[in-house]
From TrEMBL:
InterPro entries: AB_hydrolase_1 (IPR000073), AB_hydrolase_fold (IPR029058), AB_hydrolase_sf (IPR050266), Epox_hydrolase-like (IPR000639). The keyword Magnesium does not apply. Keywords: Hydrolase, Membrane, Transmembrane, Transmembrane helix. The chain crosses the membrane at residues 134-153. This is Hydrolase, alpha/beta hydrolase fold family. It comes from the Bacteria. GO terms for molecular function: hydrolase activity.
Length: 277
């Protein structure tokens, strides 16, 4: 089972589950925990091969990872803790896992907060994936990871996010990195399916205004899907929970509290501004 850490404030409090991206770990949410535990029970998981979930063995049947295997790892933790339903918050590739959870077990997902959401791969992203697949067996994987981090988060203000993710990626074994990289072969058909199918699950997209690779696709998708909202965080790149943690926390908490109260507004723009939390 995945390694996890939980913070329980009350038995009847709603749960929030944090899902990190590829190469990260639950440590990337260190700027969120303090604020979220004021309102919710919090569950942080380390995906297989990441953080303290390195012990998970891979059977012959799942030698090559796919999104269903990784998603069911999270469902197994929910079952073990007897969490019937929760809000889910993800960053980067973690948003794809959450969206897939909404497909496999929609009754378990009260809402989704998608930070730096990956909705569609633009031409630059497709080229990046192709380059990675070509060189993955020829160069050390950390060279590729540093290169990807710089392409996706290029500005000086993204430096903290880049360093955080590179440092976490160093803890992932090369063989494990290769297994995760095989997921790129699934991305295009899976993302196309997600784009065409509207789950209706309340979803808030939190995107940095400098997330040039993925923000345009999110702007498009929120116009097509019901119960989907977008908030753009200024002076922030792809990893907006680290670039602008106060904005990320306040907007996400406001949204989740509204969902918990079953009082979603017609538009995020009509929500009253939250005081700093």
């Amino acid at each position: 089972m995945l390694h996890y850490k939980k913070h329980v404030i009350a038995e009847d409090a709603p749960w929030v589950v944090f899902v990190h991206g590829a190469g990260g770990s639950s440590a990337i949410w260190f700027l969120q925990i303090k604020e979220f535990v004021k309102h919710f029970n919090v569950l942080l998981v380390d995906l297989r091969g990441h953080g303290r979930s390195k012990h998970i063995t891979t059977s012959k049947e799942v030698r090559h990872y796919n999104f269903e295997v990784i998603t069911r790892d999270i469902i197994e933790v929910l079952d073990d803790l007897q969490i019937q339903q929760a809000h889910f918050i993800g960053i980067s590739l973690g948003t794809i896992i959450i969206r897939n959870l909404g497909e496999l077990a929609p009754e378990r997902v009260a809402s989704m907060v998608m930070g730096g959401a990956i909705i569609r791969l633009n031409v630059r992203a497709k080229v990046l994936v192709a380059v990675g697949n070509f060189f993955k067996s020829l160069v050390p994987y950390m060279w590729l990871y540093r290169f990807f981090a710089w392409i996706i988060m290029p500005k000086a203000r993204h430096r903290k996010s880049r360093i955080m993710f590179v440092n976490e990626a160093k803890k992932v074994a090369q063989k494990e990195f290769m297994r995760w990289f095989t997921l790129t072969y699934e991305l295009n058909p899976l993302l196309k399916y997600f784009e065409e199918k509207d789950t209706g699950i309340p979803t808030l997209y939190l995107m940095g205004d400098e997330d040039y690779m993925f923000l345009p696709a999110v702007k498009y998708i929120v116009k097509r899907h019901t119960n989907s909202y977008l908030e753009v965080i200024s002076n922030s790149g792809h990893v907006c929970n680290i670039d602008q943690p106060q904005e990320f926390n306040s907007r996400a908490i406001k949204f989740l509290c509204n969902v918990s109260l079953q009082s979603l507004p017609e538009s995020v723009d009509t929500m009253p501004q939250l005081a700093a939390v």
